[in-house]
Amino acid sequence: MKPKKSLSPTVIARVADHQWHALEDDQVVGRGEAWRRHDGRLFVSIDAWHDVVFDQLAGAMLADADLPRPVYTMVDESDLGLKSHWERLGFTTRRREWVCLVPTDPRTTGLGAARPPSGVTILPLGTAEKGPLRELDRTIRAEVESSVGWQEMPAEVLPRLDDATVVDPTKYAVARETESGAYVGLLRVAPVPRQPRIGLVAVRADRQRRGIARALLAEVLGSLHRSGVRAASAEVAEGNAAATALFDNIGAERAGSNLEVVLH
């Protein structure tokens, strides 16, 4: 953001539910938005060209009765200017989320020899059946909600959606038990331009610590490597020791971090 130079008065207008515009001479010079995530928490974002406009938008939004506390937002930790704006408004850091670059070359990850445990088969991206995949997705999400809670999951992992949570099996690799046919683990890949993103790696609670997550990563990263992709991205919550260790052990590099900040 830049210091404001215009002498025109700034008008803050609420243009829709949970949407605000900052106007100067009928031109939009800033936008604010608030939305409630599926875990029930209220998040806000502000996009403004000038520092003063940012403060004016934030003041109007946070004074609105429809934005009860606590209120959250995500900030790139390296963006010191934006971070200081939110801190000046009273926001404090609640948690950190690492942004990782994950190599795909099995010579780097050490996953070339990784195999699923006995009795488990890895289904490559796009080969899972939608019905069993939805059932597994609901099971894993229920387990997360009853344990750490979705507020501790990376921002890109969407919680508690409706029955259409899994609409595109091409984005999922799955671990399936050979004898029962039950799906017990999944890995979701978002096909972001230029660099795929690993959105979620999860294994049913009663099937964990058997190497299933490593086998899923071996399949997906190996497939990406063969298609010419050198690295994928992933977000890992700093407080998730198991996920941090999993990605550290395959050579993932921490390329940055996001902070979840909150105003109580």
From TrEMBL:
One of its GO terms (molecular function) is acyltransferase activity, transferring groups other than amino-acyl groups. Keywords: Transferase. Residues 120-264 form the N-acetyltransferase domain. This is GNAT family N-acetyltransferase. The keyword Transmembrane helix does not apply. Pfam families: Acetyltransf_1. The keyword Transferase applies.
